[in-house]
Amino acid sequence: MEKKNPSGNEYIVIKAKEDGVNVIGLTRGSDTRFHHSEKLDQGEVMIAQFTEHTSAIKIRGNARIMTSYGELESEAKK
């Protein structure tokens, strides 16, 4: 039997591939605003969750992102 998150919220895993990767949480509602920010250094991992307050997560820098939908990589600005 597959375990589901009881709140229905999705988790993502972010692994920094360089120092200074920014992870920014954005709010839900009529006005999208930043509500939380973290900076990761190379090799650090963050597990983030979409919640009733978080509708989007923005990632700046070179990182590996793992979701239930698959994996992708963000790139550093050139």
Main sheet: strands, sense, barrel: 4 strands, antiparallel
Low-confidence runs:
none
| CATH architecture tag | Sandwich
The level-1 CATH class? Mainly Beta
CATH superfamily: TRAP-like
Would you give an account of this structure?
This protein has a single domain, classed as Immunoglobulin-like (Sandwich). 0% of the residues lie in helices and 54% in strands. It is globular.
Q: Summed up, what is this model?
A:
The chain has about 80 residues and is mainly β. About 0% of the residues lie in helices and about 55% in strands.
Notable characteristics:
7 strands; 0% helix; single chain; 78 residues; mainly beta; Immunoglobulin-like; 4-stranded antiparallel beta sheet; 3-stranded antiparallel beta sheet
SSE topology sketch:
Elements: E1 11-16, E2 21-27, E3 34-40, E4 45-49, E5 54-60, E6 63-67, E7 70-74
Antiparallel strand pairs: 1-4, 1-6, 2-3, 2-5, 6-7
